[in-house]
Design brief:
Its main location: membrane. This is Membrane protein DedA, SNARE-associated domain. It is a multi-pass membrane protein. InterPro entries: DedA_domain, Rhodanese-like_dom, Rhodanese-like_dom_sf, VTT_dom. With 368 residues, this protein is α/β, with parallel strands linked by helices. The chain has two domains: 217 residues, no CATH class; 133 residues, Oxidized Rhodanese, domain 1 (3-Layer(aba) Sandwich), CATH 3.40.250. It has 16 helices and seven strands. The protein has a five-stranded mixed beta sheet. The protein has a two-stranded antiparallel ribbon with strand order 2-6.
Length: 368
Amino acid sequence: MQAQQTCRSPSFVTSGVLQLIEFPQSEISTWGGGVVFLNVLLTRLGVPIPAVPVLLFAGSAIASGTLSFWYVLPAAVLGALIGDGIWFIAGRRYGQRLINALSRLSMSAGTHVRTARSLFERFGAPIVSVSKFVPGLGIATPPLMGTTRVDPKIFLAWDLLGASVWATFWLLGGAVFEKQLSLFVLSVRAHGTTVIDLVLAASLLYFVYRCIQRWRFRRWLKRVRITQEQLEATLRTESPPIILDARPESALLDDTHRIPGAQRLDATSQADIEEALPERNRVVYCVCQDEATAMRITQQMRRKGFTRIRALKGGLDAWARRGYAFDPFPSRASAAALAARVKSLRAETEAVTLRGVAPKRGTSGGRR
């Protein structure tokens, strides 16, 4: 009974949390806001440390009266604005090179960039206000916004709104669930560990997982790679390959050319992919905007029955460096209509090209 009463005590929660993160309780009122600011800033800059647990514990300290809400909230918002502002300026200065570098970090980073771009095409700058609530999207959005024509004042206004709502949500969450946090404190302390230990362990496991995933994809890419010369040679045969151009529409704004005979493909639509893949023994190439899309379309091709999947890394950039031929869009009208839909974006990601051989009619798809 005494233990339960202790758990309900706000002072116990604050004391337990501070002991758990090895921060003296006597210093929390002085340095609490600084800790929140630094934590949020590092998180927004991309350092793999979570900001939510610190905000939750700060919320519990606010509920106990140790910290002031109007002291912690500006610290969290300022950290978010500085971090996002640095990414925005970097995107404005380095443009496509920065986006390409982010997309090459991992398949998930490329996916987040593509998602942010798609949402921006649909909703515009207001996506900045909600991006922090979506894992991965919060990091991809600021540099992507920097590559567009969005006015810095507009970006700052939406980012200020989003950061304020985001920080308030988690601070109030920590205050509301103060009792649950106290139980968590007891559980962790009973095992002789700290929150820092848990965060470091989780971050290490996630990093190892991402490295393994990246290594597996690189091994697959190395095993199935073909050269630009091989593709060019097949285009001059009596039975040229079918080429599917799966680059996003925004990537076609600055590049209105294609590999000869390429057909447009919406890589986000499974129906389009299924319809585009032929059922005769023909070679198919797919120009993709990043490795995540390449992997997804590869899986679609395998389910369709395609075998001997091959990848040609570099896409149109490598094709152009070899000096090979290009075809323009079928008509200026289609190019103009495409540009009108996504005026404010540029091509952001490196291309990956896939190649596969379809099974003959009536076959079961062969080896996978």
